Amino acid sequence: MERSTFVYDGDCAFCTRCAEFIERRIPTEVTVVPWQFADLDALGLTVAECEEAVQWVGADGSRAAGPDAIARLLGTSNAGWRAGGGLLRLPPVRVAAWPVYRWVARNRHRLPGGTAACALPQEARERLYGPTGRPPAAGA
């Protein structure tokens, strides 16, 4: 793999807004992609892993999830963002970051930009909204 990849849930509006922030504000060469459009097999990821947390797959094959993945992403940017990533890697911060991350993941449908679909597992989202994230056409 030539570039590191950061994988998020593209069916979640809150997650998508966060990914858009990354692409606009955090200068990095990392590929930021929704898992629904990523080659999960090539990345060595499963749907279950991607539904549980954001994922990092480094160009060197390293992997991380949740706040650890965010720390890795930040570590590829400029000095200010790298400092934030380094802070997130400190053991006491890392220990606190996981419960916060899990709370955000469970409540992402209530956060700014979130929608009711954000709270559903992938199988239920596809049943309601189709594989593209949009409701099936009438009569389909």
From TrEMBL:
It comes from the Bacteria. This is DUF393 domain-containing protein. It comes from Micromonospora cathayae.
